[in-house]
């Protein structure tokens, strides 16, 4: 699950598309600040994420606050 050559957002999209819960969890855990998640929200890929993945990101924001 470690690959520094592939962007986290790309891995998050793959996890979302192929229902890879563990990969999604690893990706969400890489975000250390709310600013990281806000930057993710500005990407084109974010718009294609499922509501479930967006909810996981929101939950992460709550944990960071």
UniProtKB/TrEMBL annotation:
Q: Which Pfam families match?
A: BACK_BPM_SPOP
Domain BPM/SPOP BACK as annotated: residue spans: 8-59
What family does the Swiss-Prot or TrEMBL record give for this protein?
A: Belongs to the Tdpoz family.
Q: Which PANTHER family match?
A: BTB AND MATH DOMAIN-CONTAINING PROTEIN 36-RELATED
**What's this protein's name?**
BTB and MATH domain-containing protein 38
What organism is recorded for this protein?
Ascaris suum (Pig roundworm)
């Amino acid at each position: 699950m470690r690959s520094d050559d592939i962007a986290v957002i790309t891995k998050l999209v793959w996890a979302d598309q192929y229902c890879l819960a563990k990969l999604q969890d690893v990706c969400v855990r890489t975000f250390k600040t709310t600013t990281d998640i806000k930057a993710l929200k500005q990407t084109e890929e974010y718009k294609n994420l499922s509501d479930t993945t967006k909810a996981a990101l929101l939950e992460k924001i709550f944990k960071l606050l």
